[in-house]
Amino acid sequence: RKEVEQDPGPFNVPEGATVAFNCTYSNSASQSFFWYRQDCRKEPKLLMSVYSSGNEDGRFTAQLNRASQYISLLIRDSKLSDSATYLCVVNSWGGNTPLVFGKGTRLSVIA
Amino acid sequence: DGGITQSPKYLFRKEGQNVTLSCEQNLNHDAMYWYRQDPGQGLRLIYYSQIVNDFQKGDIAEGYSVSREKKESFPLTVTSAQKNPTAFYLCASRTGENEQFFGPGTRLTVL
What we know:
The complex is a heterodimer.
Chain A: E1 4-6, E2 11-14, E3 19-25, E4 32-38, E5 45-50, E6 55-57, E7 60-65, E8 70-75, E9 84-91, E10 100-101, E11 105-110
Parallel strand pairs in A: 2-11
Antiparallel strand pairs in A: 1-3, 3-8, 4-5, 4-9, 6-7, 7-8, 9-10, 9-11
Chain B: E1 4-7, E2 10-13, E3 19-25, E4 31-37, E5 43-51, E6 54-57, E7 64-66, E8 76-78, E9 87-94, E10 101-102, E11 106-110
């Protein structure tokens, strides 16, 4: 089983749609979780950290289910500018050990 | 402005030549990382350093070398032993469970 798994997509959705991305991780001792966004030919940038209680930032909601080792990202009212690849990222081993990156889910929002 | 800089942005190399990619951070982060990304693919870890004067191999270290003589700097040398070096190279830094920041990347093309 891969350490972090994501549906690669692509997800093609109309503007205004709600879209959900899922991610599973294999190490139950993982401590911290993130969603990063990567635009074409650019570096990844942090979209949001994921907290145990779930957290929301505007149109974006992230949730963590430790029992199922599952992380989700919900985007409401999709905008054209949301088109990007979304990376699920896990700090599997703690401290400064390398983060584990999913391969990413590509989203295209269509007018 | 705090951040990570990488230079050059684009680099062209003839087969058989070694090249060094620069990465500098002024975020006072302990750990630094090098990743390679091929078109349409995820990030792959080349080398990482959790502390000055120490570094470890990642998943694809063959044909690459690094040094970490200063906290701020983590240069990557792509040697002639690297069979297929054309790729997008990303440097990142982080401390502990916090957000990982990426530099803007260097696109290396072997002619």
